[in-house]
Amino acid sequence: MAFGALAQGPVAFAATSQQAPPATAEPLPPVSPTPQSLTRSGRDVTVTGRVLLVADDTTDAAARDRLVRELRKHGADRVDIVTPGNVPKASAGLLTVRIGPAARPDVAEALGDVAAPDRAEGYALRVNASERGAQIALGGHDATGQFYAVQTLHQLFVRGDDGWKVAGAQAVDFPSMPLRGTIEGFYGQPWTHAERLDQMDFYGDVKANTYIYAPKDDPYHRDKWRDPYPTDKLAELGELVNRATANHVRFTFAVSPGGSICYSAPDDRKALKAKLQALYDLGTRSFSIPLDDISYTRWNCAADQAAYGQPGRTAAAKAQVDLLNDLQRNFIATHEGARPLQMVPTEYGDLTDTSYKQTMRATLDPAVVVMWTGTDVVPPAITNDQADGASKLFGRKVFVWDNYPVNDYGNTSGRLLLAPYDKREAGLSEHLSGIVANPMNQPYASKVAVFGAADFTWNDTAYDAKASWARAMAYLAGGDRRATDALLVFADLEHLAPTFGTTPWQSQAPELAGRIAEFWKAWDAGDRTSSVKTLRTYANEIEDAPAAIRAGSVEQGFAADAKPWLDATQLWGMSMVKTLDALAARQAGDKEKAEALLAESEALQKQARAVRVDPARNTWGKVQPKVGDGVLDSFLIQADIRLQLWDAAGGSENLALKGTASASSVEQNLDRLSARYVNDGQLGTRWASGYSDNEWVQVKLAAPAEVAAVTLAWEGACATEYQIQTSLDGTNWSVAATQHPDSCGNDVIKINSDSAVQYVRMQGVKRKTTWGYSVYEMGIYGSPAA
């Protein structure tokens, strides 16, 4: 995908972190990652049909080849490569591009007063239109800097009235963090070889320099770590190493022996070094030893107890340090070009000082890079103070393994995580050695968050999550306006970002939620016709987004990754349109038409709930894809209830919010799972019961009411059978409905109530799991009794 199209794209991306051009000049195209400095140098220059490219043996080959491709793609029919001393005298009028080390005399002269940074991977760029002809200078501090200069240049191509031009710009740029990229560290189906090759090209595009190969379900990474890779798999890894190198990405090979290694056994250490040597022979120069997700309170062999003592935190740290120091000093240090060893500690996600961390801090070789996930497995935020604290605990700047957008755990069931990379504090570059994002099992969909992570780690102080998110969509859409807008609409419906706890760290569908809130405000104020028209326009965008995404401009891999979610989104969008039309018809006095439209909407909702992620790449299996859950479906419920109660009250409200909840039990008496969370209006909290079938949760309404519907938003521990019961006095109960849901999701139970009630209960009959019942939210819709 070419960034150059971003300048022609649909979304007005604010370059607030880039220096503003003179008032008389055209604004520069947006560049991602955001450069440290990007300003206007003068007028745009034309890409001539013949271009002179001045390069020599100090020019990075990958940068040169990419530059040639970009020039040819943007108007150059012929690119002549010449050395600095052999520029033709008759070159006046031709665009001349110089690329190489910033200190090379001709590059330095062309850069003029644009000084290249003395920083690893840094570069300087200058586009200059002069009387002697148009010149572009690309000077790198090192080979990677040259490559990144080209990556910036190809975003500066703009289409003029008479062909392609290059925006008159100058840049001085370098990464804020040394290590930037991803760790393929999830559980479930690993990426395919073709998908990994594509990822290496993507990382090159976004100036990410690190890819850590650590798929949990590769048997040779974890369970069979002693065994050499089969010949065909080794050949694939070799091709992947080469593709990564061509994109200036450090292929980092990780092997995780902690589940079975005998730390003190010479044969195990020999096997581990042989595994690393096989990848070194393929060209790998970065290595990692993850020791996460293992037991460190037992030994795998009796010899380790004799060598390190009784199992426990201190002994485990001693054994691990002994192994890691051996690898750093007797493998890494003895292999030319090998970079410092990386490791993931067993205690990787907190800020508590323990004997394990104390031993690590005191005895681990200072060269070893320690990874840390934040204050939790999935941290809702990472602050400078937290990073400082972690660095002090391990005695070095930590390297963050950021578990976003990974979706391999229970709270992500049925979800694509398409919210922007966010809640990481500006200034972290002063406290970390880098960040790698742990992506989803869906590699192409992961590009949304990884794009942002690359942007943040390149220039964290200038990072704008919202602007970067829009640019990520434009990147995936190849700059196509309609497709970019469709991706933004779709991603809003996949915005919820869970943690391992009960509270998501990013909310679901904030754009849609805001529009719905404005709709009901206008509707209740009497502005019903225009409010329906406005929201219906956006509902049409939801309905149309899947087709626009599949039309061809968006990467095909993204459409494949998102297929079940796109299928469901179209149905939910169609349902929303029908419901809005039903509201409009009822407002116009056509009750029969409203009822017919509502029936169509309900049929579409049923189809949407029947969609399954199949085949499933994730460990959560064939589940219903979640689309705008808690927002879009809640709107449909509320609209449905208002239509049902039109004559009685002109609408309905969620009466549960003003009620008082109680339950038969609470799981392990944990306050965070207590009954009051079932009607707090927050989908990030929940009630959970004890572990038996005959459990219940109920809400006492603030006053008796005529109830029309009950909604239940289930967590993964749901019911295969339950009843909705109602009561006026809390003693005498009636069964209003019996339900047999086929999956855990959002249930809508309509009730034909002839009399007022004050208590509504979900009475469990049979559990789906060995756990109890767990409900995020219980809604009770109706009108207070007269």
Describe this structure in words.
The protein has 786 residues and is α/β, with parallel strands linked by helices. The chain folds into 4 domains: 3-31 and 37-173, Chitobiase, domain 2 (2-Layer Sandwich); 179-476, TIM Barrel (Alpha-Beta Barrel); 510-644, Hyaluronidase post-catalytic domain-like (Methane Monooxygenase Hydroxylase, Chain G, domain 1, Up-down Bundle); 653-784, Galactose-binding domain-like (Jelly Rolls). It is 33% helix and 20% strand. The chain is built from 20 helices and 27 strands. Strands 19, 20, 21, 22, 23, 24, 25, 26 and 27 form a 9-stranded antiparallel beta sheet that branches. The longest helix has 25 residues, at 563-587. Residues 1-23 have low confidence and may be disordered. Keywords: Glycosidase, Hydrolase. Residues 644-783 form the F5/8 type C domain. InterPro entries: FA58C (IPR000421), Galactose-bd-like_sf (IPR008979), GH (IPR017853), Glycosyl_Hydrolase_84 (IPR051822), Hex-like_dom2 (IPR029018), HEX_bac_N (IPR015882), NagJ-like_helical (IPR049019), O-GlcNAcase_cat (IPR011496). Residues 178-461 form the GH84 domain.
